[in-house]
Each structure stands twice: as structure tokens, then as C-alpha cells.
Amino acid sequence: MPSFFAAFLISFLVVIVTTPIINRYGRRIGLVDQPNHRKVHQRPMVRLGGVAMFIGVVMAMLVAWGMGGFDFLRPGKESEVLGVAIGGIAFFLIGLADDLFNLSPKTRLILQVVVSGLVWQSGVQIDFLTNPLAGLGLSALPEWASLAITVVWLVGMANAINWIDGLDGLAAGVSGIAAFVMFWTCLFMGQPHAALFAAALAGAAFGFLRYNFNPAQIFMGDGGAYFIGFTLAAVSVIGLVKSVTTVAVLLPYVILAVPILDMSAVILDRLRRGKSPFVADKRHLHHRLLKAGLSQRLAVLFIYSLTLWAGSLAMAVSGMPSGVGYAIAATVILSVTSWQVWRTAR
Predict the structure, then answer these.
(1) Which residues cross the membrane (predicted)?
(2) Is 269 assigned a ligand-binding role in the annotation?
(3) Strand 32-33 and strand 45-46: pairing?
(4) Which residues of 21-58 are buried (b: 16+ CB within 10 A; e: fewer)?
(5) DSSP state of 34
(6) Is residue 204 part of a domain?
């Protein structure tokens, strides 16, 4: 347990310390995100906060490694952990390049697919899916299907976190809640190596909220969103899907249900209207909540409560002690925020 606490705390503190420094540097050299008709912010904002989050997670994992946090790895797990680490670095660099040089969507997608394919080769693989025709039992996937589904999952989640990064504190808070829930579920499922990554991600996300919650002082940018989204997805594979139980295989999709459903709904809506799924618009859940008359803070808090509720359901169905109690508490929180939304919405 000390290594888990250290991973969370070090990541949290490093982000707290480095974010203001990066913010000042970004303003000095003019690396800012300008307001426009599609964006909510009203003034230029530095979008390099992901650099601080990346540094925080890397420092935390190095300290955890030095404390013997990975000494318990079973044979064959080393390559999976290495795949998550290298893949996270690569996704961060892709996002950072986009923040600095404005890469085309096609270029970003190709790079993400290539990296995800290499990560799959390292052992980060979805090898089983639930089969409704077999009473929700598990069905082994052929190699080509495992590759395709794993790549879609890794690339999709990286972009899903990036797509919800539209309000102050939204992506950081959702990611932090999901990472914290994933930490406890991975630990309960006997996957401490994955729990270490999740603890560091949670620390980075919550530390960044100090500067990113409304009114935000800095944005995480594509570098932060791609890094957090990919790492959450990869950790869910090596920590939960690899457990090869029906419940464990389903848990990542429950924990990350909010960004998954938001992205899926937006893509289907764009296709239905004959638009490209890659052309940005203002039809995400958070945009709809703002259009209904909610403030940024209330919209964000409502989506937080949805994420927490989904995570609590995952904890309950996993059989975790007190999981049902967490689900009841999260349901009460969601009910309160939903009532506030109902009172406020036009």
C-alpha cells in the first residue's frame, strides 16, 4: 500500500508545483488556445497543462519502481507494463505535437493506430469478449479480431477523453474519478501493477483540477487528453480485461461509460446528418447542458456525478466489500445534482 499512496501523492504534488511554471512559460512564448465560436472560454488560454500531468505520472511511476512497486510482477507481465508506459509516452508526444504544430486529424489517427498496434504486440490485448448468445459467457477472439478491437479501444478512449475536454475541469475531473475507481477495482481484482498506474493517473488529474476547475487558468491540451485517455484504456486492459472473468471484462466499459456514450452519440449524430465524424461541433453532452441554461460549474458537476455513479456500479458488481454502499451513496449524489439540473434547465 505505501507504493500506491506514494504514486498518488507524488503525482499530485508534482502537478501542483509544475503547472504554474508551465503556464507562465506558455504565456511567455505565446502558446495559447484562442477563443472562437465553437469554444466556451473567452480569453486566450495556455493548453500545455498535459506536460505537467505527464511529468507527474512519470515521476510517480519512477518512485514506485524504486520502492519495489513492480517487484511482484508475474512472468509475462513485464512486457505489458512496458507497453503501457511506452504507449503512454507516444500518445503524449502525438498530442503535444498537435498542440504545438496543429496536426491534421488524419495524421493524428494514423499515428495513434500505429502506436496502438505496437502496444498490442507487447501484450496489451483484449483477447475475450462477452457473448450474449452464451449467457454472457466469454468468447475467445481470433488474433485479427483481438488486434482490431484493442486498437479501436485504445484509440477510441484517447479521443473520447479529448472530445469531452470542452468545459473547465471536465476532462480532468472525469478522468480523475475514473482512475480512482479503476485503482480500487484493479487492486480488488489482484492486479497491483495496473493499480499503480491508476493511482498515479488519479493524482495527476486531481492535482491539475487545482488550476483547471472553473474558472480555469490552464488547459491540459491534446497532449494531456491523449495521454490520460490512452493510459486509462491500457490500464483497464492489463488490470481488468486480463482477469478473464465476465464481470472484470465488463468493468472498463462501465467505469468509462460517460465518455464512451458521449463519443458514440456524437459520432452517430454526425453520421446521421451526413457529416464527417471528425469535424468538431457543439453537440456533446456538455454543450447541450449549457444550451439548456446550466452554468459551466453545474454542467461539470452533473457529469462528475454521472461518472461517479457509473464507477460505483462497477465497484458494486465487482463484488467489492461495501460496493453496494458506494453505489447507494453515488445514487444519492446523482439524484441531488439531477434535481439541480431539472430546476435550472430551460
Answers:
(1) 6-25, 46-67, 79-97, 109-129, 144-163, 170-190, 196-213, 225-244, 250-268, 298-317, 323-342
(2) no
(3) antiparallel
(4) ebbeebeeeebbbeeeeeebbeeebbbbbbbbbbbbbb
(5) P
(6) yes
Domain count, the chain: 1
- Residue 176 inside a domain? The answer is yes
Question: 214: annotated binding-site residue?
Answer: no
pLDDT tens digits, residue range 88-107? 999 999 999 999 999 999 99
Model confidence at 82, pLDDT cuts 50, 70, 90, reads: very high
pLDDT at 319: 87
Q: Say how far apart CA 234 and CA 150 lie, in whole Å.
A: 9
Please list the helix, strand and coil fractions of the chain in percent, rounded to the nearest 5, in that order: 75, 5, 25
Q: How far is it, in rounded angstroms, from Cα 6 to Cα 64?
A: 7
Q: Which three cell numbers stand for residue 337?
A: 445534482
The residues that bridge with 216 in the sheet, in sequence order, are none
Length of the chain counted residue by residue? 346
Q: Distance between CA atoms of 326 and 322, rounded to whole angstroms?
A: 6
| pLDDT tens digits, 274-314 | 888 877 888 899 999 999 999 999 999 999 999 999 999 99
pLDDT of residue 259: 96
Evaluate whether residue 332 is within a structural domain.
Answer: no
The CA distances from residue 325 to 187, 252, 276, 319, in Å, are 18, 20, 43, 11
Q: Which residue has the higher pLDDT, 118 or 319?
A: 118
3-state secondary structure (DSSP) of residue 35 = coil
- Please spell the DSSP secondary structure of 62-130, one letter per residue: HHHHHTTTTTTPPTTHHHHHHHHHHHHHHHHHHHHHHHHH---HHHHHHHHHHHHHHHHHTT----EEE
Stretch among 25-34, 58-67, 79-88, 174-183 having the lowest mean pLDDT:
25-34
Q: Are 229 and 161 in contact (CB under 8 A)?
A: yes
Strands (E), the chain: 32-33, 45-46, 128-131, 137-140
202 is a domain residue: yes
- 221-239 and 192-212 helices, crossing angle to 10°: 150
Domain interval for residue 47:
2-246
